Amino acid sequence: MTMTARGQERLYQDLARALLEDLAAGRYPVGARLPAERELAQQHGVSRPTVREAIIALEVQGLVEVRIGSGAYVVRLPGKEDVPGFNISAIELTEARLLFEGEAAALAATQVTDGELVEIEALVAQIARENLDPAGSVQADRAFHLAIARATRNQAVYEAIEQLWRLRDTSPEAALLHQKARTANIKPVVDEHSAVLQGLKDHDPAAARMAMRAHLSAVLDSLLFATEEKAVDDARRAIQAKRDRTARATA
Fold first, then answer.
1. Options 3.40.50.150, 1.10.10.10, 3.20.190.10, 3.40.50.300; which CATH number does 11-74 get?
2. Overall average pLDDT of the 120-147 stretch
3. How far apart are the first and last CA of the chain?
4. Among 89, 72, 82, which Cα is nearest to 17's?
């Protein structure tokens, strides 16, 4: 079955609703593993990222559990009151940021002051320090992007970008995927932020726009990676292997 969007409805909503109906009909009992991501994508004629977003929508509702390196398993069957929440997903949110923040960086490059450049450069250094913290933090990353939005001298631009960052935490589906990314040890890339900073320092709108879009495209790729089956498990194995090599070298 190939899915088509109804009006403005997003494809992942269609797929989540179809899976919800399958669960309600008993096609997948409690404890059953849902078909693999690739299989669901082929069955429904959608992309694998769409499948991931649909599974996350069901996971937020507590209907399925994604087990690292194994897949998505049914943990309870839906009742009549169960409807996927359909909040804004992390992938949609990042796509919106790519559109807004690329142009914001270009505008900021024409308006930014020396004092603001000092602030933004300090935030890049803070991002590097926060990346060393195993617990992780996005405070400096958030402040970096909002400082650039503020440098546009356009309050509407600033408030739009601030709202996108607020949705990152308040949308359950977006928050869950970002949490998965952090679990996979995906952190803000300092070099990408430094490239944006350089475009601002050069007062080069095209360079600032290109660097910001490249950065957010990489963020989008990292979110897709974080939802790949076995991605989190593979990342953990790689980290453990690195620790083991270090331990042997220092023994």
1. 1.10.10.10
2. 89
3. 58
4. 82
What's the token pair of residue 104? 């914001």
Mean pLDDT of the chain: 82
User: Whole-angstrom Cα distance, residue 92 to residue 37?
Assistant: 19
CA dist 55 and 36 (Å) reads 11
The verdict on pTM exceeding 0.85 is no
Closest CA to 222 of 251, 188, 247, 191: 188
Contact between 38 and 228 under an 8 Å Cβ cutoff? The reply is no
- CATH assignment, 90-240: 1.20.120.530
Locate 229 and state its tokens.
């089956």
Residues in the chain, overall count: 251
Give me the residue label for tokens 């009992």. Answer: 29
